[in-house]
Structure formats: C-alpha cells, structure tokens
Design brief:
The complex is a heterodimer of chains A (about 140) and B (about 300). Chain A is an alpha/beta fold. Chain A has a single domain, classed as 3-Layer(aba) Sandwich (D-Maltodextrin-Binding Protein, domain 2), CATH 3.40.190.10. Helix content of chain A is about 40%, strand content about 20%. In chain A, helix 3 packs across helix 5. The longest helix of chain A has 15 residues. The termini of chain A are far apart. The mean pLDDT of chain A is about 90. Chain B folds into two domains: about 220 residues, Alpha-lytic protease prodomain-like (Up-down Bundle), CATH 1.20.1510; about 60 residues, GMP Synthetase, Chain A, domain 3 (2-Layer Sandwich), CATH 3.30.300. A three-stranded mixed beta sheet of chain B has the order 3-4-5, covered by helices on one side. Chain B has a two-stranded antiparallel sheet with strand order 1-2. The longest helix of chain B is centred in the N-terminal third of the chain and has 31 residues. The model of chain B has no long low-confidence stretch (mean pLDDT about 90). The chains are: A alpha/beta (about 140), B mainly alpha (about 300). Chains A and B meet through helix 1 and helix 5 of A and helix 6 of B.
C-alpha cells in the first residue's frame, strides 16, 4: 500500500470529529460520574473569586459542583500533576517555571499583562486533560470579553 | 567546462533544473516553518516537526553551495578544482538526515518513558475559541504537500545528473511528509486521549529515517575514501562504474582497473602502457560520457 497512514488517519478523523478533544486521564468523565470538581486555591490569592465562578460554571455544565481541597501551597502543583485535584487557582506568570508541568490558562477576567514575568490570576489544569482544558479556555476567553 | 571545473554541457540544463527545485524547496519549506511556528503552541510534537523542517533545509542549502563551487575553475591553490565540494556536501546532507532521525528518536523515547501527556488547548480567533489541534492539523496538511511534490520531481533529476546530494534531499523530503502525516496521526491521537500516539508514530518514522541516513552516510564515507563509485540509492557499486570497468578490461586485457568518484565524476586508472589511441568517453560510457573526468594509464 502506497500511503499506509492515510486510511487510519481518515478513520480516526471521521470517528473522533465529534468528541475531540478528550481527556488523556478521563477527568471530565470522572467529574460527570462523581459530580465533583476538585479545586485548590493557592495561598495568597485573595482575588480567586472570578476563577472559582468560571470553574463553578464548568461544574454545573457537567452536573457537578466545586469541592475545595485544602492542600499546602508547596504540594499543590504536584497534586495537580498526579491528578489528586482537577484545577488549581492562583497567580502565575506567563513564563512560570511550572508552565511545562501544568497547563496554565490565559489570565482570568483581564488581558495578558505586558510583563510576561508578572503573575496574574490563572487556572492551572492537569496536562493532557484536553477536553477540560478547552472547556475552561472557552470560559476564560468569555470572561475576558 | 574545463578539465577540473564547470558543469558538462550534457547535464547543464538538468543541474539548473535541480537548482531551481532547491530554491523552491527553500521557499516552500521556509513558509511551512513559519506556519507551523504560528500554531505550535506548547505542543512538543509540533516543536519537533518545526525543528525537523528547519533541519531539512540543510541538504537544499548544501546542494546550492556545492553546485556554485563546482562551476568555479581550477586555480593554483586548488589545481583539481572544487568538484569534491559535492562529496563534502553529500556528507553534510547525510549527517543532517541522521540528525533528524536521531532527534526524533530522542524526543519520542523520552516522551514515552516519562509518560508525558501532551496538552493541546484552545485558541481564540475572531471571538470563537476552537481546539488548537484543528489548526495544527491544517498546518500539518499544508506542510505535507510541498515535500511530497518536490521530492518526487527531484528523484529523476538526481538520477540524470548523478547527484547524491539532491538524491539525499529527496529522501529528506520523504522524511518530511512522512513525519507530517505521523504528526497528524499524533495530534488526532492526542484529541482522542491517547497520549502515547504522537510519540509512537514519530518513533516509527524516525527509525525509517535513520535507516536511510545510515545508508547515505556509508556512501558518503566511501566516496571520500576514494571507494569505487556507489549507486545513488544503495551502497552497491554503480551500474555505470561496473560497465566502465568491463569496457576497459575488454579493451586492455585482464589488467587492474581502479575507479574513484569526485562528486558526480569518475576518475579511472588502468595499470598498462598508454595505448596509441586513447578511447573517448563516449566509447567507454555512451551517453554518460560526461561522468568520465579522467583516464590515466600506469605502466608497470
């Protein structure tokens, strides 16, 4: 066969167009099953409310509600990476040292600051949970408007 | 054309065609790099594809440089001209191809070992937030078309002018469109939640690229070590070189005949007294007479 990739790609595209993207670890499905979105707010985030409101909207869309998980700030990023929580709310710079390990949203309820080292309110998600990431990206984009 | 410089008239038009193809390659692949860089986001797979595309420009650049040098005349500092620039360019092109394969293997294996889950989120365009994966796939489809077309046009030209650099560049274009398709499969896999799909597809393609690159490197080293001319697409002796040895033996008896290759040209050495009438290139090699750059005789 001349183009061995063509058929599998076409089949995948046709089969998956509707539901793309999905979560690598099935977070959205788990949220719908357990009716809980587990969120941690980093200490020193007095303005977390807009981000929590967006996550609450996401939770309601999936028949769930927010469950605040108290985790010490030092362990929160690791807990997100390990899937112990679904989202982390806090102040992060665009060039945060965590940016490769967790998926940072655009700034919540404001535009991107000129200084990319300036931390602003963002929602961090677990890498690879692309359905949850896209859904929350849409909510964050709406809040910026 | 002089003895040690310039392009023979028989292949001048094809060499110019090869140069035009390489300028088109630089233009098209350059535009692919720009488009891919615009949509790559934080995706490691897309970053790898961009780096691979940038490395794939090397054979085109060294081909253009080597032809430029090949046209230069011999001078007191370089009395044999600059034709071996093509051999050097071939080594560089083969090394670039190997680097692409090695880079892709490293990226894929580390992703699989670390079980990294690639993140492809949303991008907001004209007020709508869509999945970035769709834009990536569109960019990748665009990235597949130029190398697919250019690679196929280059192969017959490379054969006519016996240019291993252009041939290696055609292999590089094959690597380009294959990795493009693998990346589309990978992004689709990410969309389906299969974090391993992207790296696995890239690894599969990388192994095939390395196989091609090792073959090209063997040929490049053989050429630089004055080995008997090799075929364009394998490490076997070239058909026209074997025919030349047979023609020389038929004419001068069972004597030692040595051939070596400088770029696209063959130099032959025969262990016998110079004959009264020296055979012409056309008598010995037919329509590939331009390949025979020199014929020397070494009396006992």
């Amino acid at each position: 066969m001349r183009y061995p990739f063509a058929l599998p790609i076409l089949a995948l595209l046709l089969a998956g167009c509707d539901g793309l993207p999905r979560d690598a670890a099935g977070t959205t499905e788990r949220i719908e099953r357990t009716h809980a979105v587990r969120v941690t707010v980093l200490p020193g985030t007095p303005d977390a409310h807009p981000a929590l409101a967006l996550l609450d909207a996401f939770a309601r869309e999936h028949g769930a509600r927010l469950t605040l998980v108290p985790i010490h700030g030092e362990h929160a990023h690791k807990a997100l990476e390990d899937g112990e929580i679904d989202a982390l709310v806090g102040h992060f710079a665009k060039t945060s040292p965590w940016q490769a390990d967790i998926a940072l949203s655009k700034p919540v309820a404001r535009g991107e600051p000129d200084d990319k080292h300036h931390p602003v309110l963002r929602i961090a998600r677990r890498n690879g949970e692309n359905a949850l990431i896209l859904a929350t990206d849409r909510l964050v984009a709406g809040s910026a408007r | 054309m002089s003895l040690h410089g310039g392009i023979p008239a028989a292949i001048e038009a094809d060499v110019r065609h090869g140069e035009r193809l390489e300028w088109w390659t630089l233009l098209w692949i350059g535009s692919v790099v720009v488009v891919m860089a615009l949509v790559m986001g934080a995706s490691q797979a897309m970053k790898s594809a961009v780096i691979e595309d940038m490395l794939s420009l090397i054979p085109a650049i060294v081909f253009l440089l080597s032809v430029h040098w090949e046209r230069k005349r011999a001078n007191p500092r370089f009395p044999f001209g600059y034709r071996r620039a093509n051999s050097l360019a071939f080594l560089v092109a083969a090394t670039a191809l190997l680097s692409v394969g090695g880079f892709l293997v490293y990226e894929s294996v580390t992703t699989l070992v670390r079980q990294e889950h690639p993140t492809v989120g949303g991008i907001t365009l004209f007020g709508h937030t869509i999945w970035l994966g769709w834009l990536m796939m569109a960019a990748l489809v665009y990235s597949v078309i130029p190398p697919l077309v250019l690679g196929r046009i280059k192969l017959p030209v490379a054969k006519r002018i016996n240019d291993k650099v252009l041939h290696t560049d055609a292999l590089m274009q094959k690597a380009d469109w294959q990795t493009g398709l693998a990346a589309i499969a990978g992004i689709t896999g990410i969309g389906l939640g299969w974090w391993w799909a992207d790296a696995s597809a890239a690894l599969f393609i990388a192994l095939s690229i390395i196989k091609d690159a090792v073959g090209a490197l063997e040929q490049a080293v053989a050429e630089l070590l004055d080995g008997t001319p090799r075929a364009l697409d394998s490490n076997e002796l070239a058909d026209d070189a074997q025919a030349l040895i047979a023609a020389l033996k038929a004419r001068f008896g069972d004597v030692e005949v040595r051939l070596r290759e400088t770029g696209r040209y063959i130099a032959a050495e025969v262990d016998c007294r110079p004959p009264a009438t020296i055979p012409t290139g056309a008598e010995l090699m037919g329509d590939k007479a331009w390949r025979l750059a020199s014929l020397s005789f070494r009396p006992e």
